[in-house]
TrEMBL record:
Residues 15-44 form the Zinc finger C3HC4 RING-type domain. This is Zinc finger C3HC4 RING-type domain-containing protein. Keywords: Metal-binding, Zinc, Zinc-finger. The lineage of its organism: Eukaryota, Metazoa, Ecdysozoa, Arthropoda, Crustacea. One of its GO terms (molecular function) is zinc ion binding. InterPro entries: Znf_C3HC4_RING-type, Znf_RING/FYVE/PHD. Gene3D superfamilies: Zinc/RING finger domain, C3HC4 (zinc finger). It comes from the Eukaryota. It holds the Pfam family zf-C3HC4. The keyword Metal-binding applies.
Amino acid sequence: EVVSDESSPYHVERVYCGHVYHNKCLDTYIRTPPFQEGKKCHTCGLRIYHDKWKLTPETAEARWAHKQAKQRELDEVVDFLT
């Protein structure tokens, strides 16, 4: 079944090298470490480009680190209150 809803995790995205990935798989891959030298296509080894993910490796790493720090703070608050 083709998923036409672009917000669905099962929607398929085609990257510039021509290979396709589920939206959720691609989003997770782009937004998690390692970030050095960009992300490579698992099929052909070319660097992955897509208009939805116009992040430099530095920006992606900074966003990931910020998200991790925020989660640690929330976990500490939960631990303190329980």
